[in-house]
Amino acid sequence: MSIRLVIHLAEQRLYGYDGTPQGVGRAVCDYPISSAALGTGQLKNSFKTPLGRHEITEKIGYDCPVNTVFRARQTTGVIWSPEWSAAHPETDWILTRILWLSGCEPGKNQGGDVDTHERYIYIHGTSEENLLGTPASHGCIRMGNQAIIELFNRVEVGTPVDILE
Known about the structure:
mainly beta
């Protein structure tokens, strides 16, 4: 079954619909998320979550253990733990799975200084599951680690993702 994702930033929720136009299809999944602490914005280096139509262009982390730590989209061989986090308190951890997004709207979230893919905007697991439901990321969409595994297994490269205020 094809699926369409809609991220409502005001609600801090990610919804999956059964492939029909936004809001019309049957909801097949619903997860709390955490978007950017600094709000919405399209510009590179803004640390804000981009709005608009996107799609998943890469899926990274097949079969990795829960809490696998990624750096530059590569596994590090480390499994995150609270002790590891305490030793590296300033790190924005990217864990478990990565769904790398690309913008589909030239000039808004595609190309130049607004290119979502070149900004490295992902949907990914987090070490701060206690902050889900609250804007707290550096621009990405954070999810719980079990939730990102479930979502990763439901979506394909090319899955549409609408990010709405």
